[in-house]
Amino acid sequence: MPSRLLVLLATLALPFPLVALDLHVATDGNDAWSGKLARANPARTDGPMASLEGARLAIRKLPRPLTESVQVIFDAGTYRLAQTVAFDAADSGDAAHPIVYLAAPSAEVVLSGGRELPAFQPIKGGRWELRTPAGTETFEQLWVGERRATRARSHGQGYAFMRAMESETKVAGDRKDGEVFRQKILVDPQDLQAFAEVAEAEAHDAVINFYHKWDNTRRRIETVDPTAGFLTVVGGATKPHNSLDHHTGFVIENLLALLDEPGEWFLSRAGLLTYLPRTGETPATNPATYPVLEKLLTFVGSADRPVAHLEFRGLRFRHAKGVATLATFEPNQAAVGRVDGVITLEHATAIRFLDCELSRFGSYGFSLRRGTHAVTIEHCLITDMGAGGVKVGTLNDEPQDADVVRANRIHNNIIRDGGLLFPCAVGVWIGSAADNEVTHNEISDLFYSAVSVGWRWGYAPSRAKRNRVDWNHLHHLGKGILSDMGGVYTLGPSEGTSVSHNHIHDVTCFSYGGWGLYTDEGSTGITLEGNLVHDTTDGGFHQHYGKDNIVRNNILAFGEESQVQRSRLETHLSFVFERNLVVFDRGGLLGHEWRGTLDNYVLRGNLYWDYSGRPVRFPPADKLALAGWQQAGQDVGSVVADPLFVDAKARDFRLQPGSPAFALGFQPLEIEKMGVIGAAWRQVAASFERGPTPPRPAKPAAPALNLHQDFEGRITNPQYPFPSAHGSLSRMNKPGFAPSATKDPVDALLLTGAQAARGKQSLLFRDAPGLPAAYYPMLVFTPNHRAGTSTVQFDLYLEPKACFVHEWRTGGNPYATGPVLSIKDGRVTGVKGLDLAIPLQQWVHFELVAEIGADTPKGWTLRVTPRDGATQVIPGLPFRSPKFDQLSWLGFISNANEATDFYLDELDIRTTDAKR
Questions:
Q1: So what's the pLDDT on residue 914?
Q2: Is 510 helix (H, G, I), strand (E, B) or coil?
Q3: CA proximity to 421, closest of 448, 395, 444
Q4: DSSP-H helix ranges across 503-649
Q5: 466 touches 524 (CB < 8 A)
Q6: Number of helical H runs and strand E runs in the chain
Q7: Which has the minimum average pLDDT: 52-56, 72-76, 358-362, 740-744?
Q8: Cβ–Cβ < 8 Å for 108, 76
């Protein structure tokens, strides 16, 4: 942080409390001294203490109960923490006699969990170098001067896109936290050229960070083939709903060959640290610091004896690893399950952090865990965050009331520059916790949501109640890196929760889901009122699904895709949307799902306006004018009218006299009160420099699929598995899965050892009578073959009565069909002029080959090889449609209407398309 801000922060210190006992700490002190003197006496037999730990231990020796309050005053300087300072109930004050740890007036006091390295020496090429002292542990974070340095990485501040995950195979054996899989990743060979310059041992130290939807995944790189563009990584199974595909960005870290941007560094195995300085830096004035401690402070009490009545004021907490290693991180939404705070509290109460700084750490800042209540974090600067700022609550409901996290206050803080190591993190996260306040904060410059509330996907009961997220300024989120986010993001039943009077803007996603207010799965009983939301990628308000929410008196402005979105048709009341001003100049008004009745959602008394001059249109398909929309009973009292903002183009959303909004009962927003409080503190919030935001990356076209699947491990590459329970990917990935008894007919796709062409498993298609569609079960791939020769090979084992269909199609609707192979009762059907018997209850190998493209022959070749039999070659078979010119859809279907099975194995999909 710039030094001028440190001076300003010091002037904002709150007044000292009236206390009876003062203890002092100084950098030249001694923990054997009493601390009652601010300076050492002439004989140096007494004087200030030397550390926070020394002060904590001295206070423990005071008689209890305390008869006077205590304040520990730190003289200016940097205090290196030798270990995490651990407070327990014996360190508590009481309500009448709190214990306060604070900085002396105007003193800059830094409590650091880091160690400073020797000075750099300039070397050729404009780089600096130093040899780390003997015994220095390997580190993964570094600060040079006042700024975080970036470990040498590819692709500057952006990322490249992988092409495909070619395979995912289970590794023999299990590990404690789950099964282990090896993923083979295909990328552009140019993105792996740095590996051509490094030894094999150094290559194994490289780490890859994947960015996919709302997650990020970190893995060590196991093997690399720079020529072919392949690498392998090992870790947990990918999630079917958020796998690694051509929309997955990636960055490779920790190779000396990648050290090419100012501010980057690399540490060799031999302890040689190399740094490429930024403009204006000098070795003498920019020492390097690395973190040693994982946590800085912990507070751990018990339900009947909590840590209590401690206060920290005007102190700067810096330099903590936060996590044991950055080499691996399994995907975890908001990074809350695996990334803790560097200051953690459990069964703690009446703990206050006032006018502090918490910065330069690799995880979350504060974690308010089980049984923590009445904790205050106020007027603090939380910045340079590996993950996010504050976690409040637990992931799951605590069964005992005493363990519930409740009534904590996150007030008037500046929380910024987060997600630097875990981009999926949020500024403030509230899980299973109640009656907490997140008010008057400025939260900005994150790659995901600013605030998340509730942590229950669906309508199951939750203890997340009556939380307040009010009067905050939330901005510059997403930055085009991740997707599916909101300025405020909610989950699950949260009755009594308020998300109101917030200013939210500049929410930019990568592919989808940059919303201002986002009530996601099961959000219930939330009031969203008086918010100003503008300049978002996908809209001001989106409800995926939820119940009984109120969206009232908001300004929702200038979403790129749409302004208001509803994503699921439900039988109950989703929300009431009333007295809102909705304005835009591009995109549509109401996005996605607006079927239903007046019992499902209510829109009334709103104002709509399109500054582009287009007529404002409503569902279905944006064809209705407001009058037609209102005939269905919706939007009673709403109008299409210019709201008469002072200057909408300049984002001045004050209303001019005579605005039609007033006639609707709209109450003007008090925008000037949103964000942090106090003129000087607002000046601090506005003083941070924000570098240019890279342009939102364009979504790459899907690569051509080349795949071999032997069904010995998980099914990973159906880029479009049929999205229903019939033949679902989740069933396919459960070996030995058997459908449970149900009143409805059940089909299944499942891995089985009952048959196998080679290896031990194949994929079973189990059909049943009376299914909702004759083509269940079905397995679909999206090959994206646009040119060249396409070849599909597979082994098939047909039981009697099996009805097998394999089909190639173009995309679009209507689509064109190319090769079709249908087998019923042991004979090929559906191909004109082809009458071919296929043996049942034995493995048969099939190969289909066709030229793909607009100017290629309109036909295909079939090769059929029964086990232990001769190959039959049938060339010149016609496409079903002469318009077939691209392989965009490839399906395997069981088309029977009775109980029957067939097995698929050794599937191979290939193309010679050079654009793969």
A1: 59
A2: coil
A3: 448
A4: 626-631
A5: no
A6: 7, 73
A7: 740-744
A8: yes
Measured between alpha carbons, how far is 707 from 163 in angstroms, rounded to an integer? 12
Q: One-letter amino acid identity for 890?
A: L
Q: What is the number of other CB atoms lying within 10 angstroms of the CB of residue 252? A: 25
Using one digit for the tens of pLDDT, what is the confidence trace for 383-440? 999 999 999 999 999 999 999 999 999 999 999 999 999 999 999 999 999 999 999 9
The number of C-alpha atoms within 13 Å of 415 and in the hemisphere containing its C-beta is: 36
CA–CA gap between residue 728 and residue 716 (Å, rounded) = 12
Half-sphere exposure of 292 (CA within 13 A, CB side): 17
State how far the Cα of 223 lies from the Cα of 200, in Å rounded to an integer. 9
Token pair in block for residue 781: 């791939």
Is residue 744 classed exposed, middle or buried when 0-12, 13-18 and 19+ CB atoms within 10 A define those classes? exposed
Q: Half-sphere exposure of 38 toward its Cβ, with a 13 Å CA cutoff?
A: 9
Residues 481-490 pLDDT 10s: 999 999 999 9
What the block records as the tokens of 141 is: 């974070």
d(CA 651, CA 653): 6
Cα angle 39, 42, 47; round to 5: 35
Please say whether the dihedral angle defined by the alpha carbons of residues 432, 433, 434 and 440, taken in this order, is positive or negative.
negative
- Residue 52 corresponds to which tokens in the numbers above? 């926070």
197: helix, strand or coil = helix
Q: What is the pLDDT of residue 241?
A: 83
Q: What is the pTM of this model?
A: 0.87
3-state secondary structure of 406: strand
Note the pLDDT of residue 704: 85
Based on its alpha-carbon atoms, the radius of gyration of the chain, rounded to whole angstroms, reads 31
Provide the residue count of the chain: 916
- Asked if 594 and 571 count as a contact pair (C-beta separation under 8 A), the reply is no
Least reliable range by pLDDT among 365-379, 528-542, 621-635: 621-635
Residue ranges of E strands in 704-744: 707-709
In this predicted model, what pLDDT tens digit does every residue of 663-688 receive, in sequence order? 999 999 999 999 999 999 999 999 99
Rounded-to-integer distance, Cα 737 and Cα 446, Å: 41
At 201, give phi and psi (nearest 5°).
-65, -40
Q: Which amino acid is at 212?
A: H
Burial of 135 (0-12, 13-18, 19+ CB in 10 A): exposed
Phi and psi of 291, rounded to 5°?
-85, 140
Give me the residue label for tokens 């200016």: 76
DSSP per-residue string spanning 371-398: T-BS-EEES-EEEEESS-SEEESBSS--
Q: 70-84, 197-211, 484-498, 644-658 — which is least confidently predicted?
A: 197-211
Mean pLDDT taken over the chain = 92
Mean pLDDT (whole number) for 803-823: 95
Residue 834: pLDDT band (50, 70, 90) is confident
Q: Nearest Cα to 889, choosing from 814, 820, 823, 807?
A: 807
**Whole-angstrom distance, CA of residue 743 vs CA of residue 343:** 53
Q: Which helix (H) or strand (E) holds 687?
A: helix 679-687
CA-CA distance, 862 to 833, in Å (whole number)? 13
Residue with tokens 């001294």: 33
pLDDT band, very low/low/confident/very high, at 732 (cuts 50, 70, 90)? very low
The Cα 212–Cα 159 span in angstroms is 12
**Residue among 152, 149, 131 nearest 270 (CA):** 131
At residue 255's C-alpha, the angle toward residues 254 and 259, to 5°, is 100
**How deeply is 697 buried, as exposed, middle or buried, from its count of CB atoms within 10 A (0-12, 13-18, 19+)?**
middle
DSSP per position, 35-50: S-SSS--TTSSS--BS
- Give the model confidence (pLDDT) of 135-166 as tens digits: 999 999 999 999 999 999 999 888 999 988 88
Q: Tokens 């459990």 label which residue?
A: 346
